Amino acid sequence: MRSRSRSSIHPPRCRAAFRAIVISALLLVAGSTIVVPPRSASAESTELVRYRDKNWKFSLRKFKEWAQVPLETKGTERRDLFDDCLVARFSEPQSARVPGILRVFRMVNGAPASQPQLTGETPSKPTPPPPTPPTPTPAPPSAPKVDPRAPKTMTALLDLYLARMGFEPGCLAKGDKDLKSKDGVPGRYWLVGARGAFFAIAVYEKDGAEFGLFLGCDAQDRKKLESWFVMTLRSFKWFDDHADDVESLEQLNGVNLTARKRREIETGLVAGWDVVVSPKKNYVVVYNTKGHANTPLARMMAERIEAIR
Length: 309
Prior knowledge:
Largest sheet: 8 strands, antiparallel
Strand content: 25-35%
Distance between the termini: 17 Å
């Protein structure tokens, strides 16, 4: 279930992240995840703090008051390329205007980044060699075809991201400036302002892998935030050896989840969020713990969704 934002600067697939009151629920199968968002608030602070990503080990400086929003776990339905490449997202606390955003994307050799493994995870027994693949057969005429126009570079992906917001295609074809990450990885950045919005965008590339940073705000906040946005782009560190490792969630023991689904929940859980499992372990509720205001609601949802099932 997704909320609808009226702002023209947000693409359809990303609108839910802008509203802190949204509840995103996947209730189709056992082991589904329910997300209970934080309460709304307003903030004017521009203090920067370093965020270290436990999955991909990058780090950057972000606004202290901008909260990280958990990523939705992948289902069996066809997904959007932006969702597949998205590895972290942050949003300014709710205010009277459109809140600012920070998105981090990752691609490897022109394809979405795969889900990271849990650090220290070891198989219980040696993995047997994969079987010899059968001789491929021609695909039937009804088989879906890969869109040849799908972006193959991070720059093309973010350019399409802007186009979905109503900007003219090719916004990132010119006007870029060179920069380097804190650990020396080369990159480029752009400052784009139009249609009532302002964006600061950067792309870093190393050994076939690319990170894309995408910051956005209302046009009226550009004067206040532009220099801070550029500082965030320049603060990026490709690999931060101080980043924490992903921890296994004991609450998920016994839940009807595949190993992949459990890993997605564990790697997607962010600071300030927790999980509660329904009584019969058919559903997982992911909720914001700030002020413990959502804890009773999360527990009630976990109990009632079992009764509905």
